[in-house]
Amino acid sequence: MKERQETTEDRIQSTRALEQPTSTRGERIEKRREIFCFLLCLLLLGCEKPYKEPSSLISPPLTRITDDKALDNFCSVSPNGQYIAFSSNKEKSFDLYIKDINEKAIIQRTSGSEDDLWPSFSPDGSKICFSSNRFGSFDIFVMDTLKAGEITQITFDKKRDEIFPSFSFEGDKILFTSLKEEKNPVIMAISLKTGLITEITDGFFARFSPNGEKIIFNRQNVDDVDIWMVDIDGGDCKLIFHNEEFNCLFPSLSPMGGRIVYSSCPKGRMRFGYKTIGEIKVLKMDIRSVAINGRNDIKITGDCGVCLFPFWSSDGFIYFSSLREDNVDIFRVSGPEEIIQKAKDRIPEEIRKVKKVFPKPKEVEPEKSVVTTRDNVTIWSYPGKNVITKVNKGTRLIVISSKKWYIKVLLPDGRTGWVSSFFVE
């Protein structure tokens, strides 16, 4: 294993990199966005017509979690199974949203012209880590799940893209994939206490095991993408599952760690990173599950087009994104009944009893005024629907009425709209 500590000189160089001419920086940003284009190509290429699910399809019952005219993906579920965080391009660029799984209200947590991707809850559900290219390359950031406080940048390497973060079992480290042009992707972990970054092994799409002792991840060999596992210190790295017919992407362990859920993808000319992706042709992707010993591989979803980015939540359900009827929405499927019951039993009592991660909606009297606490606050025509405009920090708004976590307000220009109560005081 290799270790490195980011120095003041590293940050100075990062700052200088931001001061390069606009055209050069723009070209660099566009090139680094190819990594996300790779994922979207996996999702969209080969789907020239909306997929129509056959009426005779026999598959486990599905629950639709989101229903937007957008790409909803990269989901993470809170430890108590109550809330889901995901990325969506409702406003062209990708922002982070949070939703109560059993309700319709959706809370927007980030905004801007950059892409905010791969959210992941901390073990206690109070924070979310994610990857964003708001400063050029993709870096790792951490923010409170609901408070409208500052967003903390964790990594600063302008020569690499750092993506797909996830919290450790104790919440003191963040695992992520580091990408650099013409180099193999590398799995790294950063300590939130010391800032020390540890290089673990070659690979990508890594997640900690439920007990925090192992890391499950993808590794590519020529055209094969397989599922691997390694100790958190980089030792005992071994192949878990290989299939001759398809690649195995985005592995996620069950709550007890006995099975893996993943997305199967037809093999072809594809390379994770900065390689050409225009010739990728994906006809169908399924959600599948295999035992930790590589046996008993089964299909979870039926012949329903493109299904990917699975997440096995702590309460035993499997969440994933699926392309249907021109939209990419998030669905939930029931895992084996015994896994769900055992998963619910193992959720720590202090987490299971937390029925509400969201704070209580703010009670604001009509005709009172509120002030926005940050820039680029979205004003909606109706909560979570069309965007009317965006206002900056310090804008004074007159309250008309309130509903859950949204407040209907009168804007300075005379228009009315809805604003999230998290962004005003």
Q: What's the short story on this structure?
A:
With 425 residues, this protein is mainly beta. The chain is 11% helix and 44% strand.
Shape: globular
* Major sheet attributes: 5 strands, antiparallel
Low-pLDDT segments: 2-9, 11-23, 41-58, 273-282, 352-357
| Adjacency order of strands in the biggest sheet | 1-14-13-12-11
The radius of gyration is 21 Å
Question: Which whole number gives the mean pLDDT?
Answer: 77
Give the N-terminus to C-terminus distance in angstroms.
47 Å
Helix/strand class:
mainly beta
Number of strands: 31
In what range is the share of β-strand residues?
35-45%
- Helix count equals 5
Helix content: 10-25%
Write the layout of secondary structure elements.
Elements: E1 2-5, H1 8-18, H2 22-32, H3 34-44, E2 62-64, E3 72-77, E4 83-91, E5 93-100, E6 106-108, E7 116-121, E8 127-135, E9 137-144, E10 152-153, E11 161-167, E12 173-179, E13 186-191, E14 196-202, E15 204-208, E16 214-221, E17 224-231, E18 238-241, E19 246-253, E20 259-266, E21 286-291, E22 298-299, E23 306-312, E24 318-324, E25 327-333, H4 337-346, H5 349-352, E26 369-371, E27 377-380, E28 387-391, E29 396-403, E30 406-410, E31 416-420
Antiparallel strand pairs: 1-14, 2-25, 3-4, 4-5, 5-6, 7-8, 8-9, 9-10, 11-12, 12-13, 13-14, 15-16, 16-17, 17-18, 19-20, 20-21, 21-22, 23-24, 24-25, 26-29, 27-28, 29-30, 30-31
